[in-house]
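Weekly structure sync, notes
Attendees: PL (lead), two postdocs, one rotation student
Agenda item 3: pending single-chain targets
PL asked that the sequence for the first pending target be pasted directly into the notes so everyone works from the same version. It is reproduced below exactly as submitted, 340 residues in total.
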Amino acid sequence: MLRRCAVLALLAVPSLAHAQQVQISVKPQFRANEPKVVVVTSPVPAARFDASLDHDGKPVQVAHGPARAGEHVQLNLPGPGHYEGQIVVTFRDGNRDTEKVAFDVAVAGAALKIGYSRERLDLDAHRLEFTMSRSAKHAELKVIGEDGRELGTGSADYNGRSPGTWLPITWTPTHAGQVVKIELRATSTDGASGGVALVPWSISIPHKEVVFETGKSDIRPSEEPKLDACYQRVVDEVAKARKVVPEVPVKFFVAGFTDTVGSNADNRKLSLERARAIASWFRDHGLPLSIYYAGFGEEALRVKTADNIDSEANRRADYIVAFDEPVIARGVHATWMKLQ
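Predicted structure, written out during the meeting:
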């Protein structure tokens, strides 16, 4: 049976295996720059949380790692709109609690819903695509850089294009700089208007690659100076972003990659383990950020090679500071795991 999550009312979900109740809740409204989340609470320790949702016709997969009993786990959502699907809580003994859900996410003060996908933003081409929940009339945007300075503006007319259509808008750069925030405001043909602040900012931190022993993920003491050298670079980039968007938490992401030697499944696993080792090093050395890691294996090669080619350039990790999950390569996806 499809359960609709009542706003701020906890939805009791019976666990057949445990005779316990998982609680699911969604706020009635979020502020424009506030992360949109559905909150899941397990009464006993859980090994994993997974949400498979449809967001206004687009699939959304959200995952979270282990949680303590009673801990409020926040599953991040891409934005306002209608969601349907299921949330699965896997307990430590292997049993699962699966429940179908339906709920709406609304933004306070927004007269219409605006949809946005990171993959439909091309910073190099100065182009953004977005959707509106009503027939589209007009949109304007302003691009803000690291020092708070305006980097460019743009506008577009849409002549009543249908709700849900991807709408392009471009901007003309007036200054060079790293884009931190895009302020978008749109108007529908019936006079409704709304705005969102998008924070596509992400910075890849330059560093020397940690060299691991073949097939292993332990960081040797001799490799730690490489991590020490880039720690301050991470802190410095975070400080720049917080000057422009202080209300949005900055996150640290570690993405692991391999060359094409070995099977794809083994490379995914190895790259994930190595990314987790690097992420753990930063946490253990006091990095005051939420830290996430993912393994992409051989699916995002820096240097294109044939199968079973030993390539040092492809055995690497990316260190990224960003507000949201970064796009590693178009069409390439992996689940970002939060380091606990």
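Discussion points:
- The chain has three domains: 3-105, 114-198, 202-338.
- The CA atoms of residues 17 and 95 lie 7 Å apart.
Action: rotation student to compare against the earlier draft before next sync.
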